Every structure is written in C-alpha cells, then in structure tokens.
Amino acid sequence: MSEETAELQAEFLAYIRKIEAVSEALELVFWDLRTKAPAKGMQQRSEVVSVLSSEIFDMKTSTEMAAFIAELAPVKEQLDEVTRKTLEVSQKEYEWNKKIPAKEYAAYTKLVAQGETAWAEAREAKDFGILEPYLTEIIAMKRRFVAYWGYEADKYDTLLDQYEPGMTVALLDDVFAKLRKGITALREKIAASDSEPNRDILKVSISKEKQKAFSISILEKMGFDFEAGRLDDTIHPFAIGMNPGDVRITTRYDEANFKMAVFGIIHEGGHAIYEQNFAPRLVGTNLASGASMGIHESQSLFYEIIVGSSLAFWKSNYPALQQVADSHLDNVSLEDFYRAVNLTESSLIRIEADILTYPLHIMIRYELEKALINEELEVKDLPQVWADKYEAYLGIRPENDTEGVLQDIHWSGGDFGYFPSYALGLMYAAQMYHQLQKEIPNVEKVIASDDYSPIKNWLTEHVHQYGKLKEPLEILQDTTGESLNPNYLLDLLEKRYQFVYQLD
Amino acid sequence: MSEETAELQAEFLAYIRKIEAVSEALELVFWDLRTKAPAKGMQQRSEVVSVLSSEIFDMKTSTEMAAFIAELAPVKEQLDEVTRKTLEVSQKEYEWNKKIPAKEYAAYTKLVAQGETAWAEAREAKDFGILEPYLTEIIAMKRRFVAYWGYEADKYDTLLDQYEPGMTVALLDDVFAKLRKGITALREKIAASDSEPNRDILKVSISKEKQKAFSISILEKMGFDFEAGRLDDTIHPFAIGMNPGDVRITTRYDEANFKMAVFGIIHEGGHAIYEQNFAPRLVGTNLASGASMGIHESQSLFYEIIVGSSLAFWKSNYPALQQVADSHLDNVSLEDFYRAVNLTESSLIRIEADILTYPLHIMIRYELEKALINEELEVKDLPQVWADKYEAYLGIRPENDTEGVLQDIHWSGGDFGYFPSYALGLMYAAQMYHQLQKEIPNVEKVIASDDYSPIKNWLTEHVHQYGKLKEPLEILQDTTGESLNPNYLLDLLEKRYQFVYQLD
Predict the structure, then answer these.
(1) Total beta-carbon pairs less than 8 A apart between chain A and chain B
(2) Domain hosting residue A30, numbered range
(3) ipTM higher than the 0.90 cut
(4) Same-domain pairing of A317 and A172
(5) Annotation-wise, does B462 bind a ligand?
C-alpha cells in the first residue's frame, strides 16, 4: 500500500469513527427517552435527536465522504478486510441517499411523519380511509425511489436489499411457497388432533420481582454479560447496542402473564448477546452492527424459540419457575406446561401470533408489498385483499380495518421490505440449529444445564463476531454449507407440534 | 431592525441552538456514565465524549462564530435582550479560547490530564513531590494565559471572572477579611462555651429505602418537579440539568449516616430547582445555565443550610425522621437533634467541614491561589504555607500532604479561581434570605409547613428565571438592593450558634 493510500485510509477510518461516536450518543438518547427521561424534558430532547440525526446524515453524504469513496474505491483490494467492507457499506449508504433528489427526500420525510399520524387516527377510527391518501402517496414515492435506485430482476428486490442485503424475490417466492405448504399441512394435522393443550394452566400470578429474578437467572445462563449491559423496564421492549461493552435490553412485566417478560427477556437477550460479541476490530466502524434485520432476528429467535421454548430448556428451568409461582404450578406437569407454552391457533394480530402461524402473517404482507410496488395492486383495494388473504391463509377474517390492514405501523412510516426479515430470522435460526446439532451432538444436554456457553460460543464463532463484515446469505452458507433452506424450520415445527398435539 | 440583521439574528440563534443540542447530548452521556453505564462500555464511550466535546469547542471558536460576532456586535443594541446577552456570552467564550495559541492550549490540556493522574499518585503516596513538577508547569502556563487574556487590577481577577463574572480581588479581600474576623470571634465564643452538642445521638441506622422516602418527601415540599427530573444513586452526588424539563440529581446512601443522603438530596435539589425554573425564553440559548458557580451554590446552600438546617425546618420534619429511624430517635429531643446537626469543629478536610469553618478553608485556598498567580509564592513552598495557614486559621495542622495540600483535585486539573465560589454562594444565600424575610415576614411558618412554594416562587422571581441573563452581582443588587455584604451570613451564623452552643 502506498503511503498516500495508508494516510487516506487512516483519515477515512477516523471520519467513520466520528460518525459512529455521534451515532452512539444518539442511541443513548433513544434509550434514555424510552426508559428514564422525565416527561417534561422530551420536547427539548427532540431538538437533540434532530441535530444529531442531521449531523450523521450530513457526514454520510458529505463531499468529504464522496472524496473518500472516489479515492479509496479504486484501490480497495489493497485495503484490509475491515476497512474494505466499511468502505463498501459507506458507499452503498452514500449512493442510496444521494440518488434521491434532496427535495424529494425532504418531501418524503414530511410525508411519512404525516402518514404515521394519520395511521394512529385511522386505527382509532377503525377507518382505513383516513390513511389511504397518505399511503397512496407514500407508495407512489417509493415507486419513484426504486426507479432512482434501479433494480435488476424485481423492483421489490431493491427494497428487500435495504434490510436484508442480497435477498431477492426469486429466492423468497421459492422458500415461502415451500414453507406455506409445509405449515399448512401441519396445521391440518393439528386441526384433526383431539389433543388440545390447556392454556389456562399458564394463568398464574407471579410478582414482578420474582419474574425478574427468574429471567435474570436465564440471561446469566445464556451468557448475557451484565458488566457489558443492563436490563430496564419499558412499555415496548427492545434491545439497543451502543458498543459491544454496552448493550441494553428492556422488558415489560405483566404479573398475570409471565410469558411476556420471561420470553421477552430471552428474546431481547438473544439480540444483546449478538451485539456484545462483535469482534473488537469492528468497533468504531459501521460493521459493529447486525449483518441484517433477519440475522439479528435469527439470534433472538434462536434463544426465544429454539432454546427457550424447547422441552430440554423447561426440563431444566421449570422447577425454578414453579418455585417463583409459589404453589400455583405445583400440580401442573412439565409436559402439560410445555404443551401450553407451545399452543398454536389462528389469530388476526401478527405480534400476538405463535411461531407456527407467524410466517403466514409475514407472507401475506410480503405478497401485498410486492404487488403494491410492482403496480399490481392499488392502495384503495388493500383492506379487501388483506381480509381475503387472511381468510385464505389463516381461515379467519378481520371484522374491521384496525384488526386488519391497520395493525402495523410499518407502511405508514414508509417501511416496505422489512417484514420478510421476521420470517427469515426464524428460518436462519432453524437452519443454524440443525448445523449446531451436528457439531455439538449433545446440545440438548447443554440446554438442560446451567451454562449455555457452548451454544453462545458456537454462535459467536459463526455469526456474532462478524457483525456486518459478512452478508446474511454468506453467513448462512459459511455456517451451514448451504443457502437458505426452509426445511429445517419445517422439521423443527413438525417435531415440536407432534409432541404438543400428540400427532401420529 | 433591518431585514438583514433580523435574518442574521435568526441564523445566529439557530447556530447556538445546535451547540446547545450537542451539549445536551454530552450532558446525558455524563449523567449516564456516572449512574447507569456498564463498566465495559466506558472506554468506547470516552470516544463519544471526545467527539462531542471537540465539536462543541469547534463550533464555539469557528469562523462562522467569528462572523456572527463581527456582524452582530456592532448592532447589538438593536437585538432583543436574550439574543444580545447570548451574543455577549458567546463572544466572551470565543475570545477566551482564541486568545490562547492553539498549540499552547493543546499542551495545557495534556498537562492537566497528566496533572490529575500525578495528583492521584501523590495522594496515594502522601507525597506532594510527585505532583510538584506538574503543578509548577500548570502555574507557569496559567500565568502565561493570564498575560494573553489580559487583566485590569489584579492578575487573579481574570481567573475569578471565569467562574464568577464581575468578581474581583478587591471585593473579595474586603469581604473575606470581615468574614474571617466575624467567624473567628464567634469561634472564640464557642470555644469558651461549655455546652457541647452530643454528636452521638445522630448515630442511628436508617435503611436506604426509608432515607429515600423521607428525602423525597422533602424534595416534594421544596418544589422539585419529578416530571421534570429524576433522583438516582451514585458514588459522588451531583445535579445536572439537560434542559429545564429534565434536571437530574443523584445521591449516595450510608445507612449508618443519614445526614449524607438527606442533606445531600436537599443540596442537589436546590441546584435542580434553579435549573428547572429557567425562563422558557432562555431554552436553546447559552443563558439556560446558572449565572455563575457562586449563584448556583447559593441556591443549593439556601435549601441545605438556611432552610434545611434551621430549627423551623426540623420542627416540622423531625417527627417524620423519628418515624423512619424506627424508635432510635424517640428519646432525642428536637432541640438536641438540631444542636447535633449544627455542631461545629475545626477539621483538616474541606469537604467534611461544617458551615462555620467552611469559609476559612476557602480563604486559605483563595490566598494561596492569588499568591501563586501573582508570583508571590512558589509551588515548592505550598505544603509548608498550607500547613501554617491551617494552623493560623483553624488551629490545626495536617500531619501529611494528603490531609493537607493534596486533598483537592482542583489545582492539578488547572482550576484556579473556582474555590471562592463556594464561600460566595453561602454569603449570597444569607443575603438573599435576609431580603426574603423582609418580603415574606412569616417565612419560618412557611418552612414549618408542607409547602415551600412561597420560597421557591420568590427565588424563581429573583434568581432562577434569569439563568445567565444577569451577572451574579447584578442579581444580588436587584434582589437585595445592595452589593455583597458578609454581615448577613455572620448574623445568621451568630444567631444559629448562639442557640446551638447556648452562648450569651
């Protein structure tokens, strides 16, 4: 590497470190707003959010950034791996932002803010008509943006790529078709079963303090590092990583429903352990971040669904739960408890769905988004098509827009291409678990023990440490030796529901 | 105002708002570092502190700022009051920073960082010799800086002005002489008294939870707004205002010594109520800040010493304290309790000193600083002169450097001119209280009640609302009709100690 290139590389990395430092401050502001900030300070705090956000945007799209890209991109093969990928991510973001005329982008920002307000009003009134004009305009702008950004096979690919780099409609159409077929077949078997888990056994009251103590003991087994993170209370649980030494999770406690906090904490803990284990060499670059929404979700679901909802897990942890539940669970067998936890049923609301029906909710949204962007569906027809699809996929029909097309905020905020990540996360997790079982044959023993570090170490080795250094399908390929394969999720679901519903 | 001036004013205010927003983010980072941040994230967080601090410094000393000053200063009479003072404060800071050559300032920053490290080592080793070479160099640089900044009557005035705008050696020499004389006379009377308060009665154990509940009830009476603030735990208590809607205080609990948290919370609460009551028109400018260190301290001491250590206060609050102390204080009379709280004695350590001896600790530091800056004292002679002064002022002599000249971090960090603010705060508070008594004749009734809002409202009307819009002595003059007068503090001390030590 020439001295000049070395110098430029150092300047580029310092510039990126500055962006990351401002981003870290902004993340702290967000964490604080949702956990600790007193009500009366929030209005002025929004000025802080606006100033820091603009600054980050300005730095990512500055002439300085343009110069770094122009000078370093041609010599990028000479750069070390981390700098090269940092440059690529910066370049992608730069182009993404710069291809939209500033005036249109400003109009879009204003529009989606109005859209979210209209969405809240529409929900309140159960009337999609209130949101419709905004959503129509948002879709029109998104279509124009796709034209600016360009696309290869499908316009929707461009949107997918924002959240899940490298993901395509061609691949998703294929895996979703297989997944739907398998889930539908399994649901038919379950419908024919006369063994229904008893959900009422979970209706026990457990104090917040006891739920918290129990959940913390699980976090510790999982390997969440409390010296590099925190657990706080919020209304809407989340995980936020400021740097690998400071990754915070939150939860909400419902004394009448321990599942909310216990599974919520395991889920957010999975996200957090991912971010606590980024390799130190990524810190201060834009690679100290999840590889994609889907990979991030795969880590939370790995712990929540694959580990935390398994029989092996509850074999080990049920006695402690029985203890914190005072005597309320004493007469409930482990098997009955496990069945109740894994009960499945059709529901209208995505965020309340169980793991078997969840992918169907996602497929509906995916198909609608794809049709909207490709001008095969008009916004005004959404409520009708939405309801028809729910009937076709889940056998139930919303009674109004609020329990139908208005349930998610995403579209009114301009987020198209995001939903598939949730289902991808589940498939990634199952595929990874299949591989992990080959490499750690006694994994159920690990799950039944008090120390899951073999699992954490395996995930760190294959996933966590790379952050954004690898793309999602690259991680999957390198880890499991194949591309996305929905059969692993189907196998897992079949095995689990066979037990839960005592299928043949 | 010309259209051009109006436009420039708007641009200037927007620029200031941006500086203030970044400063608010930095304050949140500081609060978080001291209260919530997990240990392993701190190293990376220091990068955030460094980036945001540099950014604030850069904006305050930029060519843009220079242009605002150059264009607006000549027409400042046309600006509204808030903009004009905002400009003046900006200009003062700009010149303060710009008069020091950048290279020297960088060397200074490095030197004081080394100085603070050397101070910690020196304390550990009880050996001033370890700090001496750094302090010698710091003093040499400070003297050069004063030459760059310029001065009128006394070199030390320039340093005083940083913390206490408008304060001078001429004024301080006068009031400190009077104060010392009065305190010394009172101490002689006390020494001759044979009525010694019984300190042991305060040695009761009170749980953290009960101390907290008691202290919160006091904060509520004082008018601390919990929707515009928080109370958290720390090792070193502090108050930090992010904006008037978000002012946070912290405390430390010692179950064996309730005075620490109870008086600590009242003290920090006084600082916080000041910042919660800045006028809304100051928000987003550099005037939403204490008028000076001394005025800030006057507000905390007003509540801690004048209100919170008074007999009227304990008349009303002692029963509640007796209750949280279980039965341990049941046999202690209100008068004996009050006497024990206000006990005075000579001590070597400033931060452990009571209110009667505290000003003497300050005077010693003031005299040494003044002599150092004016080249009338060399650093190597400090330990000896320090010990001699303690003997002369307080009648006791440190046995080693750690309980003498090494006890405070200030000098090793380059903070000269700061100490007088502590004593000024006490004098300001007493002078304000004297005036308040004239305007609210039944103030002791207010203090004995459950609602101190007449006091808070009076302080807000005269002090809080102005933030940095007025200078310290201007606030004092406008509020009390005279300049700084130490007699009000002396009167208060005499009255209080007359009771405590049953003097004639």
Answers:
(1) 128
(2) 1-99
(3) yes
(4) yes
(5) no
